[in-house]
Backbone:
């Protein structure tokens, strides 16, 4: 990972701080997407439970 980071710093002329900020931002976005998927799955399961209980 460090080697790839070094190559990208040179290629895009980013400081190490800038590169790390970009990586952290991407991780937060991925985490947010995962939270959204889990929330959607939870809501679907709640609907299924409600439907089963009403029978």
Residues:
């Amino acid at each position: 990972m460090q080697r790839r980071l070094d190559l990208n710093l040179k290629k895009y002329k980013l400081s190490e701080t800038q590169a790390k900020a970009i990586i952290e931002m991407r991780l937060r976005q991925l985490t947010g997407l995962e939270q959204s998927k889990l929330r959607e799955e939870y809501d679907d399961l709640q609907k299924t439970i409600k439907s089963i209980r009403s029978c």
Q: What stands out?
A: The two ends are 54 Å apart (CA to CA).
